Each structure stands twice: as structure tokens, then as C-alpha cells.
Amino acid sequence: MTQAIHVGNNSQQPENSDAQPSAEQSKADRRRSSRLGLTQEEDILKRIRSGDLLCVNSRRRNGLILFKKFHAEFAGPGAAVGSFLDLDCQDVYAVGSLSLLEPPTHEERQRAYLIRRQWIRLTYQFTDNTTPLKRAQMILNQFENYFDRETIAKVPDDAFAMMVGVLPHTIRLARRPPRKRNMRVKS
User: Which of 44, 55, 121, 182 stands 20 to 30 A from 114 (CA)?
Assistant: First the structure.
């Protein structure tokens, strides 16, 4: 029997990338905990931490950002989440209209593990670049190729930053139009 979990992020408000961050917004932990207004995400986090193996629905444009202690990983369509991979997961963020399934067969579980590895390798290709702004632009470009602008605007800067090892400020800078990137931003 396949059980599906669905989470929508319609209640999330996009961050204004040109706005000055307040003192409380600059703290990554507060931002992450404040965006978990949906109890479904808390339930997903509990299931992931318990060792359950779930799979991101491959028939939708959706995914899950998994926050670890020092980095974040993106699990896109078809990827496995949970099990031994994510016992250290501290938080999650649903991208798009998330749908998680329990893979019923051994072959589907194996395929989900392989797809998760492919998503990790794709992100690693971005982090291999030594220039932080280029890494930020590359991860944003990748998400823009797959998701619509509204969905990407809802993803917090710290989520992208933790995926490619840059500061949230660098993501805000990369989100700006090219002509505005050379302008100075008050810290």
C-alpha cells in the first residue's frame, strides 16, 4: 500500500531580495523555524528522523530541501529522503507542492537512492566553483530551469546559501538583476 504525503507552500511569503534584513531575519535558525508554519512539514521531519524511507513524487515539479548541521541538500523528483541518509536532518523546506510516497518495491527504493545521489552530484558541480557569486548564480539558474519564479521567490536565501556554501547576502546579490549587482548594499 502506497501512502502519499502532500505539502503546499501557499502560505509562504516571498522574501523581498532588495529589502534590508532585520536583526532577527539575519539569524538563520530563526528564519528556518519561522517558515515552518505547516504542521505537515513537522510531520515529514519526524518521519525522516525516524528512519522511514520516502520518495519525492517524480510526477510533479516538487522537492525537499533538507537542512543538516552545516549544509543543506536538495532532493528533487524521484529522490529518496529519510532512512539512513537523513537521520541528522534538522529541518526541511518543501519546494513546490510537495508530494512524498513510500516506495513499495526494492527496485523503486534502489532507483530512489540513485536519483538522490544524482541530485547531490548536481549540487556538487555548483560548489566546485571557487567564486561564491558564481555558485549562487548557478544554483539559482538551476532552480529557474525547473521551477517557476514564484516558487523560487518563496525559497529563503539561507536555504540556497547552505546548498552551495555561500552567505545569504551572496544569494540576495545573485537574485538581483545584473545592472543592480554593482550597487553597494548596506550591511
Answer: 44
